[in-house]
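Progress report, Aim 2. The chain analyzed during this reporting quarter is listed below.
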Amino acid sequence: MSTRRLVEIFEALRAIPHVRIIRIGSKMPAFDPYRILNDEPLQDALRMFSTPKKRIYLMAHFDHPRELTDAAIQGIDQFIRCGVICVNQCPLIKGVNDDPDVLADLYRELSFIGCPPYYLFQGRPTSGNEPYEVPIVRGWEIFREALRQGSGLARRARFVMSHEIGKLEILAVDDNHIYIRCHRAKDAAVRGRGMVYKRNDEAYWLDQLEPVDAVDVPALAYLWPYTLADGPE
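Predicted structure tokens for the chain:
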């Protein structure tokens, strides 16, 4: 988007009193950091609309440590200097970052530059994505090992799935089950609820999993210390 169009959007959102956070999801900081570095009007707009009580958040999309070039790091620094809070979200991609060492390195470097990891997304089963699919169980193992290698801010990421029912977090995998919680949902009755599925090492999407009766899974008492129906977001 042009800076002019971005400013129009910022102005419209800031005119709504209860909208206090503006989130920008963009791959631009990775492949063209000069979009922010060479655009002083954009920098001025970010300073104007990201205020102490109403921040702009940048959801950057760095997928591999090699994308953290000197220019990209300078770009993130410029966002921060303009008052923007920076975090990173990326999909798990076969052949790119489906390696715990690579993911751990990415998470460490992101935390060092002030853009800590926020979400690791399970890849959606959209057209053309099949060569890059990573099964859920394998993704969980990669994610957990990457977190074990880091510390502090490098361990803040959540392994999630943007499904049609809502934003789902993959909480744990054991020998028999996959444990998932719904953070956001269009159906309020589902929001905050825990869901349990039979472990399937080949499945890469929720629709390929078979649900089980949550009451019969003792581990839920540790995963969800609140009621399944009324858990917090």
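The mean pLDDT is 91. Helices lie at 3-14, 28-31, 34-37, 40-49, 70-81, 100-112, 136-148, 220-223. These observations will guide the mutagenesis work planned for the next reporting period.
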